[in-house]
Every structure is written in structure tokens, then in C-alpha cells.
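ugh ok fine here u go
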Amino acid sequence: MQSFNELHSIDEVDQFIANHQLSLLFIFRPNCSVCHGLLPQVKELMEDYPAIKLGHVNADEIQEIAGCFTIFTVPVILVFVEGKEYVREARIVHMDLFDQKINKIYKNLIG
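structure:
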């Protein structure tokens, strides 16, 4: 099972996105119950997409993340392809629709 990389600065986030063809950022706050409920669902779904590298970002630790990625609420899931944002899901995420979006991107890039 793939694990999330803990990212602790904007520089680490930028490097993470730049260094992977496919990457996903899960942006959360420690006291967010929706974040805690969504994370296991995302982990389980990502087992089907091993080429997507996973990043975990605490918005309280990296407060500038909100300005850098125009984030108004948590949780936020951002999916990047070759450094460009392709998918953005926030707060209430419908996992079946999210899976469809990821699957379409994944099949086109990985086959």
C-alpha cells in the first residue's frame, strides 16, 4: 500500500509536484473531522493508481498553502499532471466521481 509523503514547506510541495509526472496533494487541518473521514477513502482508492505519488499537507503548518493554491476550505485534493493542476476536489468529495476523473487521466497517461 502506497503511503503519503508528509510535506512541511511550500518548497517541498513545489518540488514534490515538479518531480513526479502524476501527483496528488491531500491538504487538511488536524481538527477537521471531514479530513479525517476522507483520508482513508482516498488511501484506499489510490491503491488502484500506484503511479500517482501522494503528498499530505497540513494547512495549519504551511499557512501560505492557501494563497499559493487558492484554497478556501479543507479538505482539498489536488491532482497534478506534469506540474499542472487537472483535478480539484474540496470539502465534500464524491468518491465515485473523483475515481472517474482520476481513471480518465490515468488511462491516458499510463495506459
